[in-house]
Amino acid sequence: MRCPFCGADNDGKFCSNCGTKMPQEQQAPAQPAQDYVPIQPAQYIPVEPEPSQQEYVPIQPTYATRITQPVQKRIKFNGWCNAGLALSIIAWFTMGITSPFGFICSLIGLFDSARKHQPGRGKAIAGLIMSGLIIFSLGTLAAVSYKDVKQVLEDGEFESPVDIIQAIDDALDRQDSDYKKKVDAVTVRDWVEQSGSLITFNTDGTFKVYRSASDKEDNYYYGKFRLYRGSDAYGQITRTYRKYGITNSDLQELKKSFATLKSDNYVCLVLDVEGGKMAGETVNEAKKEVYYGYFDDDKKDQLVLVNMKNKLKTHYIPH
Predict the structure, then answer these.
(1) Are residues 181 and 313 in the same domain?
(2) Does residue 222 share a domain with residue 96?
(3) Residue 16's pLDDT is what?
(4) Do the bridges between strand 266-278 and strand 281-283 make them parallel or antiparallel, or are there none, so unpaired?
(5) What CATH number does residue 308 fall under?
(6) In whole angstroms, what is the distance from residue 193 CA to residue 206 CA?
(7) What is the number of helices (H) and of strands (E) in the chain?
(8) Residues 6 or more apart from 76 whose CB is under 8 A from it?
């Protein structure tokens, strides 16, 4: 620093040449204090993103799921169709008793399922076919065996449905041509008894019994007859007319009388007496006479009949 008085260079507070006090360095004047102004945050202006060429698809979160089988909706069949088929099946095991009900329910179900758009038409058709076949078979059976079964039911004392079934089966067996030939072998001829009485059979199912073969104007009675042979005769004796008390031992006793007796030789004769003429007077008394016995099919010359009521045995030979 130069001395302002003498111009000498000095570095102290006083000039080394003239002793003049050296002036002090001037400090920069202090800046006046300014009021504090807080910095304002910059205003946020949202900027819309530029549209992307591809649509943004957010990623969906995935969760662990339990693997289960899909629940299937239960199919509801028409109730009428179900009932018709069930009753038709039951009819096969109950002698067709439920077949009319099965046919009606199946018929209703066929139309009802179509109206309600419900499944089950196949069941209804199956029920109609099954019950229809049973009804047709029963109708045919009734037409063929009505008279025989009716007569058997009227004469017999049935204890269970099995007896009725057996009676129907026997009635059907009588429709066989071989069976009719066996019956005709007995009924195509007249038979005379040892005492002289005569019994005649006609093709229309009627008969006449004369007290004497030599006198056909008096002392006779007439009516309708039914003759059974073989196993059918055995069934009539032991089941249908069991009320007369003919036992298997009675049949065995009859068998001892004939060395050639076979089951096919058994006969059962039922005479439904409608009237007659005795001692010149007309008799209108109706009664039933039932006989069991044996027909000699080998020689065809002997017919043995035993009255089931009084156990009277009579022997007949062809007239």
Answers:
(1) yes
(2) no
(3) 76
(4) antiparallel
(5) 2.40.128
(6) 19
(7) 7, 9
(8) 118, 119
Per-block mean pLDDT, blocks of 10 residues, the chain (319 long): 76 76 61 59 61 61 61 72 90 86 91 86 90 87 72 65 70 79 88 90 92 90 92 86 86 73 85 91 89 79 88 88
Instruction: Using DSSP bridges, classify how beta strands 215-229 and 266-278 pair: parallel, antiparallel or unpaired.
Output: antiparallel
Sequential DSSP letters for 40-107: PPPPP---PPPPPSS---PPPP-------PPPPPPP---HHHHHHHHHHHHHTTTTTTTHHHHHHHHH
Q: Does 232 share its domain with 138?
A: no
| The pLDDT value given to residue 243 | 86
* 192 in any annotated domain: yes
Which pLDDT belongs to residue 35? 59
Same domain flag for 225 and 296: yes
pLDDT of residue 67: 60
Residue-range definition of the domain harbouring residue 212: 176-318
Angstrom distances, CA of residue 293 to CA of 140, 175, 260, 278 = 33, 22, 14, 27
Backbone dihedral region of 300: left (phi > 0), alpha (psi from -120 to 50 degrees) or beta? Answer: left
Tens digit of each residue's pLDDT (9 = 90 or more) over 29-62: 555 555 556 666 656 566 665 655 556 666 666 6
Does residue 272 share a domain with residue 206? yes
* Number of domains present in the structure of the chain: 2
pTM exceeds 0.70 for this model: no
User: Are both 193 and 230 inside the same structural domain?
Assistant: yes
CA distances in angstroms from 9 to 1, 18, 108, listed in the order given: 6, 11, 141
Matching residue, tokens 């099946």: 89
Q: What would the two tokens of residue 235 be? A: 């069934």
Q: Are residues 279 and 187 in the same domain?
A: yes
Same-domain status, 232 and 183: yes
Encoded amino acid at 108, one letter: I
